[in-house]
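[job 4417] fold queue: 2 targets
>>> target A
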Amino acid sequence: MADSTQQMEQQPTTLQRFKASHFWHSFRIDRVAQLSFIVFLIYALLAIFASVIAPFDPYDASQIDIMNSEIPPSWEEGGEEGFLLGTDAQGRDMLSTILYGTRVSLMIGLCAVALQALLGIVIGLTAGYIGGRVDSLLMRIADIQLSFSTLMVAIIVLAVFQATFGTELYQQLAMIMLILVIGIAEWPQYARTIRASVLAEKKKEYVDAARVMGFGRLRIMFRHILPNTLSPILVISTVQIANAIISEASLSFLGLGMPVSQPSLGSLISSGFEYIFSGAWWITVIPGVVLVVLVLVMNLLGDWMRDVLNPKLYKG
């Protein structure tokens, strides 16, 4: 009894195992990954608590005064202390609008990637595990999907929807439409990667043992094979969030994204572009810098995770 109690006390906890892992060790020695994670965490916290941190509510018309339009940042000549980053052409405080816009961009990016992952994982698991004609059919569909760029598909779908159902309805459903279009357009990235992992995993002994024990296909696929394919899913997700945010910003810049009344970073850049040469550079430049930094840190985190979670690059 005493021996068993001593063994339980000596068994490392989950936190101790995590601290002893290669993942944590690589993170501790990589300054770029640490800085990127800190910056992304700041972005996430600012987006979550935007309604608390922002000095104004850009969605509240009573807090917007057109007479305050195009006020430069506080450090520029003519700036006001009440508008730290200046105001846009509608008189909205830029700091508040950027905080709310960052939340919208992150929400679209995360939800679109969640939809991509859901579709890609289900299709990739099905194609890799079942194989045969089902595999060939699903992968041919993925090849056809990959032959079209995300932006081209999104522009066609969103433009047709806007022309058919009107601008007013589109503005009400803009976020949902962007999530659906970006999510559905990018699922083959997940499906092909998961399929390749499943083809390697389903030949292993633990899968054969699960079959012998009489487990069904769905249980083997989702309870046994899927957990062993999480590493590539994490890497793809990190990069795809950045790609989704860029896609949303591009569509907003073309007038097919979020409406002006519910700005994202992309729609903020678009709305201020016509003023950039008239001296009101901050309306476009500041949201542009915020967007570039966000995408940069996401890509840096994705590159770091790819290197750490790739066993071929592990040096011990």
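>>> target B
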Amino acid sequence: MTMNRETLINTIIAVAFVAVPVIAMGMNEPFIITLATKVAIFAMAGVGLNLVLGFGGLVSFGHAAFFGIGGYAAGILASHALNYEPIMESPFLIEGTTQMIVIWIVALVVSALVALAIAAITLRTSGVYFIMITLAFAQMIYYFAISWPAYGGEDGLSIYVRNGFPGINTLDPISFFALCAVMLGIVMLFSAVLIRSRFGLALQGARQNPQRMTAVGIAPFRIRLVAFVISAMITALAGALYADLNRFVSPTMLSWHMSGEIMIFVILGGVGRLFGPLAGAALYIILEHLLGSVWEFWQLPLGVLLLIVVLFARGGLVGVLAGERKHA
């Protein structure tokens, strides 16, 4: 009965998510459409983190590294394409591009390689050590971006024209929202299928009892390694879209503040719940928009709400609405 109620809640969230920008388009309110697009992108980043946090039990405080890698992939490739300058000429020619599909592929590949290197080290630890090492790696990448003057350094890098997607006018707010919403839907569907697969069951088993998983011949390290890489790739895809939304990328996308925000989306919505990141990102953006315009310290009520969720509603917003408390 609870599961049916949660499915109903998920359906309502999905319908509201699509309906709000459509209504805003009819009311000629492009800003609301932009906010909905931001929700979609942040939710996608949350889906990536939720894969390792909610289902793998890995508290990563460095996912901003992958979010920023996706953003810089979009910014660097677009910058070189618009300036008609190759990225490198020797030993082979690499040129920039303004095509989103190519940018996404680059973001996925680069983030996967970086995540593989980071996970190979961090997954040999656990608990607070894992948290601190993921944070340390993210901060190293953050300071590297600050000291990279070729691409703006601390001032960031502008994308003068939003990158293109075949058959879609990405400069049109509702079209770009539709693109982001579809990509979010694909990512959520992929996540749902993955979690229900043998791999997903093994990942959850490694979270609950790694010794038993080892005893039956399944290596928790390898399972977590693959999950961490997939999680990073999803987050990097969100970062590439976020850079296109703002037409700007800066080291703030790599900072620990961004890692914290992504984690807040997951916790507010519900750790280990498919629609948790979407609900959490929507709630965060609503609070930021409504309270941020009238009070400088709008994060205070957000912090109180987060504390209430952690102490009394471990299932997050989705869990509360579904009438269940989920103890992850």
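[job 4417] complete. Note on B: The CA atoms of residues 46 and 262 lie 6 Å apart.
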